[in-house]
């Protein structure tokens, strides 16, 4: 029988096909009209479904993992077959737990993006950093760090935990966005305000990306005005305006900080400095990883 559990792990044919990253065979085993169809949510000997197997498969997660190697299987199981992303095995672990335990950042993001419950995210992060000893600034595909992912989804508690654990707020992804810009683009006001109240908020604001087919640059300030005008006004009042004196005093005036108001020479300098810093940080990460 196609659903018979065999071997030490007590897996069905579908478990083994997933473990071998055989997308063609998995597709055949999950087609509704096929005589060899296997129940997509079939459980193994430890109560694990095929998404648990994905997290553990060495065939899927080649070194280094790449999108072409991982996404076809994930799309088939989660989007096409609707396998339960929140199923817990006999030890209470969901696929998200196992993805975190194995350091599968791409898989963590994919699961969250497709309905995985994230009420366990701090426990997952703690396991990442304190038990598995994953680097807090671990760089995955497209140069994303855990802080980039937490900023993208607006998880303020995760952002705070990562920064308190030493995560860099100035590392940039493949688009040259830092965590502040990622959270601005996704319009997560709480995260943006939290980041702008950190001691190094100016360093995060001093970033830029060339705008295609122009001589201009995009900046965090421009993004704030474009995506979150209310937060931009808050930022101007809270961070870029200083009041001196007051009513009934000899002096009463407001002093404005113009650093982030479109000086293109300065912005171009931010871009060049950011490119250099990013290369240094990535090189240091690679050196530390090779030493460990």
TrEMBL record:
ANK repeat boundaries on the chain: 91-123, 142-174
Repeat among keywords: yes
Keywords carried by this UniProt record: ANK repeat, Repeat
Keyword check for tRNA processing: no
InterPro entries in the record: Ankyrin_rpt, Ankyrin_rpt-contain_sf
Listed Gene3D superfamilies: Ankyrin repeat-containing domain
PANTHER family: ANK_REP_REGION DOMAIN-CONTAINING PROTEIN-RELATED (PTHR24161), PALMITOYLTRANSFERASE HIP14 (PTHR24161:SF85)
Name of this chain's protein: Uncharacterized protein
Species per Swiss-Prot/TrEMBL record: Adineta steineri
